[in-house]
Here is the input.
Amino acid sequence: MNLYQAGYFRKGRQGSNAGWGIVAPSKGMSQIAKDGFKGIAAKLVELKGSEGMPVVNTGLFLHDRFVYLMNVNYAAQGEDARGVTYVHGYCFSVADYYELCADPAKICAVTEESFPLEYDDKIIAYPVVNELKYVSLSFAELLEKYHLTDDEYRMLVLGAINAIENYSNPLCIRLSLPREQYKEAYRELLYLIMKGLPLHLRIKISAFSYARAGAAIYVSDHPEGNNYFDLDTREAVIDTSRMSQLGFTRIYNTLPAKAEAQRDLMLQAMADFINTAFENPLKDAGCALVEAGFQEKVKKNDGEGIAADKAEELLKSFLGYKLTNTPEVFDYLTDLLAVINQTDRRITDSKTAKKLEELYSKKQYTQFEREMDILLAHQILDQGAEGYKKLNGLLKSGQKYQVVCEEIQKRNAEYYRAYYLNSYLKHTLISLKSIQTYLKQNKIEDLEEQKVLLRILDHVVEKEMSMSEGYEGLKATKDLVIRILSGFSEKLDSAFKAIEGHTDFLLWKNFRMAEFDLEMVDDYKEMKVAEVAARGWLDKSCPTACNVMKLIELFEETDQEAMRDLLIQILFENTVLTTAEEKQNVQEIFRNERLDDINFSKISGIDCLLALYYDFGKKRFKMLEWGKYVKRKAPEYLEADAIRQMKKRSVFLANENWSEIILQDIQDTLANVKRNKSQAVSKDVIRGLKTYSDCLSGKKIRNDKEQQMHGSYCDALHRIAIGALMIYVLEFLLRMQGNSFDLFGEYIWLAGIAILILLTAVITVFKISRECGFENMLELYGMDSIPRLIVYVVVSVILWTGIAAIMFLNRGRLYLIGGIFYGLLALISAIVNCVCAEE
Here is the structure.
């Protein structure tokens, strides 16, 4: 403990060091402390000359974080022999003040020699002392001296609290005494007051031995204000309205004034609690802290206990301060919460509730947690069905959930049962395994609970069916459902059947068409696919079951045309199979199981093949693979006659949209084959696909015989062109050799050649017609119709006439044009003849 000293005095008459100022301050005294001392001393000096003011006075004053025990002598001797004032005092911290207040005599009964009455210029700095000399005081003797009854003492203390907490004016204690006795009376009365006050209110006291110093408690020869106690008349004017709201003031009602020892024990216990529970007990000292200490250390243990109507207010006040993380704090909180819970009250202040939750998160004190859990249970009850969600949110909290549920059951058993049936079971039984485990661990005899469990089971089945992997997973889920149902009462048979029916429906609803397996058809029927497809579930149909039945019908169909129609419907109508994977699976099964049964001599068989060779991933027909398969199984369908029939009767080729798709796919295939020379493809397949392309694009197509006749006809025309070119060349050479023009000679020469050619032709025609007939001869040269014969003759006449005309005109440029014309004609005819031969 460090008690610093200083004086305040007016030195000299004039000069730089003259005037009022602080003198001889102890070493180490801070400037803030000095400033506070100087300010208080200056105010005390100003009181000199006040009416009735005693010569020597003492007092307690507070400034910033320091406390000052002051003594003032208004009759000190100055350097000019005139009377001046000398102020001396001690400065110490609030913490030291608190320690001194434990025995108020250390403040109130300090000996006179501790305070110098005169300035001593020989003292440069007063020493720092560790304690003050004081005399012991007797509380009982002082009570007797001032004749204070229990009620009068109570009013004296309450008046002091009013003044300390600024509830009203400073406390004026009026008594008639000689001026020199006021100081002693002040010390003794202050001692009585401080002994009755809680320790954390004692440190807030400021006091003076006479009036007008601005202290909270003072002595006077006349009453002042509305907060005074007259020791002469025993009249007390004390406003106790605020005091009545403070529980700790009951100490002065229930204990006699003389019960000093018992009161001291209570006050010390309250002080110990305050020092332990609050982080800044001295800084925050006040009635709120004292009230908390009283409620926890005194009120809780009396017959009445903590008042229920004050509990939330006390809780709010307590949590308004910075608290330590100690058992004392949580014990008090627990006691307050217990009162609130036992009287079925609530925390209405949101900030208080939030702070409690923050403390609860520390999870260090079991009883506090329990009371918080009970409080939560009450809040959940207030929320009705909305509280179910909060309860479910506590499921993972272990002990907390258990305490809350126990309290709810105790308070409202019907609410808990409703929660258990309508929310808890549904929230916790989220899988078939959990339901099965629950039924094994609990023997359920309550039919209402069984009904709830069946509803939950029905809901869980839907979820687990959707999560099952593959058909085997769906079957395993159904088997588990059947096993679970066996644990219920037979009285619920109709509910069992409903759930079984729903389970069958869900099995097929979640069946993946891509997993369809022809070998499992009998198993599908055992799983009631037909019944589900026929009736669905309630007002819902099951498209998947219907589709499975269509697939079964497809693979069991014996009529080929009906089978084709069903296959096309299944593959190309999205109402049956929706994904490429599902459709490819059916194609694969059909190839493996039914392709060998198809009669490819029928168009329906070729249609089935087209359906099987459609790539649903790329959305195009694989025409090259299709053509190769047709070449092996039904090569006639690569010929023109069969293709004409296909265009009329095929489901695909007779349909405009499909025929366009097939045409485009054929053209792309042919172009790809042409680009990829390394790909070995049969010429018959290529020719057949080209014939299909021509047919679908509207071109005229020919069978083999027609194609042969067309080639022969082109060959005949080619021979004419070649012959005309040879004759033109010979004539041109002869003309150039003679370099003259003899019209008669030319005609004779031409006529000779013509007769020779005609004679050769007649002999050839006669010879051929004699062997195979005239009609067959014409067919041999491709002239199977009159128009072709006419074209043949006309072309021959024109070419011969052209040669004669050129020779007759005998012009050099015309010879050149003629040569080019007949040469190009021969070339074109050769090309056309080669193309026809290739076809």
